[in-house]
Every structure is written in structure tokens, then in C-alpha cells.
Amino acid sequence: MLFVAVDIGGTFTDLVGFDDADGRLYQAKRLTTPDNLVRGVLNCIARSGMDIGVITKLIHGSTVAINTLIERKGARTALLVTKGTRDVYAIGRGNRPEAYNLFFERTAPLVPRRAIYEVDERLLAGGAVHKEIDRGEVAAIADRINAEGYESVAVCFLHSFSNTAHERAAGEALRGRLNGAYVSLSHEIMREYREYERISTTSVNAYIGPKVSGYVGTLESSLNDHGFQGELSIMQSNGGVMSPEIAARRPVMMMESGPVGGIIAGAEIARMLGYANVISFDMGGTTAKASLVRDSVAAMAEGYYVGGYESGCPVMIPVVDVIEVGAGGGSIAWIDEVGALKVGPRSAGSDPGPICYGSGGTQPTITDANVSLGRIGAGEFLGGEMKLDAEAATRGINKAVAGPIGLAPADAARAIVDIAVAKMSLAVRQVSVEKGYDPRDFAMVASGGAGPLHAVAIARDLRIPLVVIPAFPSHFSAMGMLMADERHDAVQTYPAALAMLDFADLLRAVDELEAELLRMCRAEGAGVQIQLDLRYVGQEFSLSIPVSREQLRKADCDGIRAAFDHLHEQRYAHSASDEPVEMINIRMVASARRTKPAMPAPAAAEPKPRFRQAVMGPGAPVQCPVYERETLPAGYVIEGPAMIQEYGTTTVFFKGDRCEVAGGGALLIHVGS
Q1: β-sheet bridge partners, residue 152
Q2: Which of 77, 136, 315, 644 is deepest in the core (most CB within 10 A)?
Q3: Looking at 374-460, which runs of residues are DSSP E strands?
Q4: CATH, range 70-212
């Protein structure tokens, strides 16, 4: 079987393929083609040398969903709500993310008030019908939507998480009347209370739906036109994969489909090496991302704002908890109005790209700084396929940064890298220190085209003792997609006092959710995990407690309560065993194990380093040894300073650091003080 994964990033599109019949590994990296993303995918397949017709499974992750939302390039969207709730979306929450910013403004809703239509229907909180829906009223609204030329429609009725009948009736009326507009119903995405977040999530799904579903359809048809006959899967934000059909209906699930691949792979590689607690760090061409993995399981976000908490859109979907900062290889260095050096968040992207690419870029970037410092070999980038212009990079840094602030070009380049490292260290602190974890208790798994260049400097800053550079780090998100299982999540609001819980009725609700999830699974043998969201009476937020079906059959109220008290004590350092507990939601995850490729072990060879002049710290450049990674046998040890070069990236470590090659090919860098 030939497994292939393709990840579209802001600068490069990456491909990894593995043929388990002969152990052959394929890889390719091509500049992302923003005007036609599918072309970049096909370019990678062509460059890899594979026959597209023999690919068995192809997994794809893309930034198209999140970019459509952040850049506000989605569809003109209308919203249908219950009469009396027209302003819920605009009012939102009473929180103020920037309490001391006098000029703070909330982000504008995706759907303006004039595009929100009220429907005179009403359900009670338990799902009982208070006022029936009038399909004729919905049909009249559909005619107005057609006349206004809206491309997409979101429907979110009050309490539809308890009873989906009114939303289904509205969906049928709209789809029978609209002129091809995309329709998104809230209960098809999530069935959880919190009206503002439900409206926001449904609106996001509708807003990006036409573009993302169109992209998925174009990808399928283009692959088929070129002879693809295998199974296509789309990466989800929850770390699993889904079918193209589900992706077209629920594109909001693709928000972080690219970055989570690297996190899944990081957790898997670390587990194989014997490290259960790691910090996953991925630095690409546009951004750097950090995530925490505990007990070999990636942390899930407890509240996700696309675009950031301060100005983003809340969505109620399971998302691997990722902190992202604007510090990628293409991030631009610039001088602000008071003469201070800044790096990012603006990026040169793939077009025009950094100055050293020779594609028209004129503003110095982090990549230009590394080329100027000699940490990236100008003649060996991408295995020599793409020659870089080091002299142009140095001239650009001198003109835009060194000259204006009175530094030597080498000092300016090092300052650019140091500022980028400081920004990325803050992202790592956000997923560790700010959540009560000491980074010194974790290893760091570094990936991305620029991750190995900077990971050791970040680890030194935070006193992380070990940095793991996995095999194929510049293709690591794609590698993670090969390791991902099929996964589908569902939630159902089910409020009840735990002590008074009707377990027979709860089991019926669990059975309904399980049947719905299993219908989505393409793979055989899917398993289901059950969780109950519990909280002390009077609390606003809850904790998810794993339970077994056997516990539900036995009505094991005491065991479930004890597990909740224990987790509350662990999470918040206190519990209240004498306080009443209530249940809020049922959560379920259906997952099916997918066949994973076994990566080949590195071949034994005789390393013969070359030497390259590079700035490896304060002071003058040094002649630094440069090793080719494919020549390093298992057990080989290198003392820093040194560089290890491979297709797509270079690993940099310094005096006092020691690198050891693990049996599976990973580089284990023990960070000096």
C-alpha cells in the first residue's frame, strides 16, 4: 500500500509518501501556490516521482479554512434565528479581553444585523415545542435571501440542541427554495448549549462553507482527472481524519488541520522514544506553533477563538490546543516609529518570499538572517534544488535594519534571530508555565522547515533539557497525517443532577450519539469513548470525566463522582466532596485505527563533516562542522557547536550541547546550561 500525506503551509507545500511493500520513502517540498492551492499539491506529487494512480490513501491538511476566515474572504452569509434573539450574535459576551486598552474594539460579526432574520418559532430548554415553526414563513425568508444575493445561510434556533425538529424543517424549506446557497444547521455541527458560541460556530461554518467545500470538490476532481483512484481523507482540528463529504458539510472542523499533524506525530515519536510528556514546537514559513502533550496525549483547547482571544471568532469544536505566533521563516524584520527592531507578524510568504529566494522580495526576514549568518547553506537549500542568494540577504539586512539602527550586518542578523527566539519562547511558556507546568519537566519535539534552526536556542532560554529532532522534520505535519486515526466527535447537552441521574435514559442518549458517530466512520472496528461533563452546582465551567458503558449500566454514581473530585483536585488543587454535582453534557469520540507506515531505520555510514563559516554566538564567525543527516548511524555522538543538514532544514546546536542519534533516526540534543 502506498500512503501519502500532503500539507499546505503558508510558504511551502509538503509531501511525504511511504510504500510499505518495498519500504521506499517519498518526499517533496514545493512553494505554495496561493492562486490555486490544488496546483501546489499536484506539483508535489509530480516532483516526488510517484505514480498518482497507485496511491492507496491520501491524507490532506490545508490552511484554506482558517485563512478564509482570518482574511474575511468568505461568502455573504445570512442567519436565521428564533424571534427575539436577533441581537445575541452582536452582543456576545461581557468579557473584555484587553481591560486597560481604551481603544479596544470587538471584532465585527461575520453576519451583519441586516442579514439576520427572525423566525417566529420557539422550543423550551428541554426540547418541548412552545410554538410550532411555519414552513411558509421560512420559504418567504428564503425568497428575500435569494433577492439579496446571499451565498450562504446559517440556521441556529434557540434550544435546538435538545430538539432538532425545527432546524431540520427550516433546512428542508431553505434547500428547496434557495438558488444553490450553502446551508449550515447548528445541530449538524454541535448540540451543546451556550447560544452565542453556537451562533458564532454555525456562522463560521456557513461563512467558509462555499469556499472550502468548493476547494475540497476541486481537489477531488483534479486528483481523479490525473488518475488518482485511492481513498482521500481530510485532516481535522481534533487530530483525526474525516471523509471529503463530511469536510464539505463541516468545514469548521478543518480550522487547524495543518498544524495538528505535527503535534500528533510529535506525540507518537516521543512515545516511541520513551518520553510521555513533551512540548511540540513547529516553526514554518509564516508562523511558529507550540502545544503540550501529557501522557502521550495532545492537550485539547477548552475554548477556541479563531484568530486569537482578543479579536477572534469563538467556535465550539474540539481542537488540539495550539498557541501560534507570527514568527516563521518568512516573518519580516522592520524598524518601528521609535527606532526599535521588530520581527513579524507580517510575512513575505511564498510570493515574493525572503530576499534570498531571488523572487522579488525586498524586506529582510528570519530566513535571510539565518542565510546571512551561515546557518543555512545558500547552495544546499532543499538539497541544492533551490539556490539562495546570501549576498542579497546581507545587503537587504544592512539597508533595512543594520544601517538605520547603527549595527554591523552580522549583529543585526543575530538580533533578528534573537528577537524571534524570544517571541517563540513566550509561545512555549503559554502552553507550559501559564498552565501550571514546568518546561524543565518536558522534552521538546521540534519540527517544521525552521524549527530545528531555533529549537535549541528556545530550549536553552527555558531550560528545557532535551530537544528531539525527528526524522523528516521539515515534512513533519505531513508525517503526522500519516499517523492520524479516523476520528469523529459529538456532544449532547444533557443537564441533570448527578445524584438524581436517570441512567437508563442516559444510556438511550448515549446509544443515539454512538449510532450517529459510527455512521460517519468509513473504517471498520471503530471504538467509542464516553465522557460526562460535570461541575459543582453553581460553577460556570465543567470538567470532562471518562466513563465506561459498564459504569452507566451499573449506575455507578459514586465512582463517577469520585473520579470528578479527583480530577478537580488535580486540576485546581482543591475539591469539595460534600458539594452537589451536576451533569451538563455527554461527549463521545468515535475513532478507528488506521494502518500506519513503519518508518525505515537510518542506514549505517561513515560521517565526514564539511566546514562552513557561520556565526554561532557572540563574536566572530567560526568554521563550524556541517554533517549530512543521512550519513549519521544510530549511536553517533556530536559535540556542539555543529550543524546537521538535510533536505528541507538544518539543525543548529551550540557549544556545550551534545547530539546523539537514536535508533530510529531521531536526533536527541542534550542542551547545555
Answers
A1: 77, 182
A2: 77
A3: 443-447
A4: 3.40.1360
* Residue 601 pLDDT: 64
Could you give the residue range(s) of every CATH 3.30.1490 domain in the chain? 486-592
**What CA dihedral angle connects 347, 351, 354 and 358, to 10 degrees?**
-170
Tell which residue, 72, 68, 17, 10, has the closest CA to residue 46.
17
DSSP string, 32-44: --TT-HHHHHHHH
DSSP 216: H
What's the pTM? 0.83
Amino acid at 485: D
User: Contacts for 92-99 with beta carbons within 8 Å, 24 or more apart?
Assistant: 92/196, 92/200, 93/196, 97/309, 97/310, 97/311, 98/310
Residue 416 corresponds to which cell in the numbers above?
533578528
**pLDDT < 70: residue spans in the chain:** 302, 524, 596-604
Q: What per-residue confidence (pLDDT) applies to 305?
A: 85
Q: Are residues 467 and 444 in contact, defined by beta-carbon separation less than 8 angstroms? A: yes
Q: How far is CA 396 from the centre of its chain?
A: 33
Classify domain 486-592 by CATH number: 3.30.1490
Q: Are 370 and 412 in contact (CB under 8 A)?
A: no
Beta strand ranges found along 43-202 (DSSP E):
57-61, 77-82, 116-119, 122-123, 129-131, 152-156, 182-185
CB 148 within 8 A of CB 154: no
Q: Which residues, in sequence order, are CB contacts of 463 under 8 Å at separation 6+?
A: 439, 440
Give the pLDDT of residue 602. 62
**Residue pLDDT, tens place only, 445-457:** 999 889 999 999 9
CA 257 to chain centre: 5
Residue 68 CB: number of other CB atoms within 10 A?
A: 23
- Centre a 10 Å sphere on the Cβ of residue 96 and count the other Cβ atoms it contains: 11
Give span(s): CATH 3.40.1360, the chain. Answer: 70-212
| Cβ atoms of residues 255 and 306 within 8 Å | yes
- In sequence order, what E strands does 538-580 have? 543-547
Instruction: Give the DSSP per-residue string, 311-353.
Output: T-EEE-S--B--EEES-STTEEEEE-TTS-EEEEEEE-TTTT-
Contacts of 644 (CB under 8 A, 6+ apart): 452, 469, 626, 627, 628, 629, 632, 638, 650, 651, 659, 667
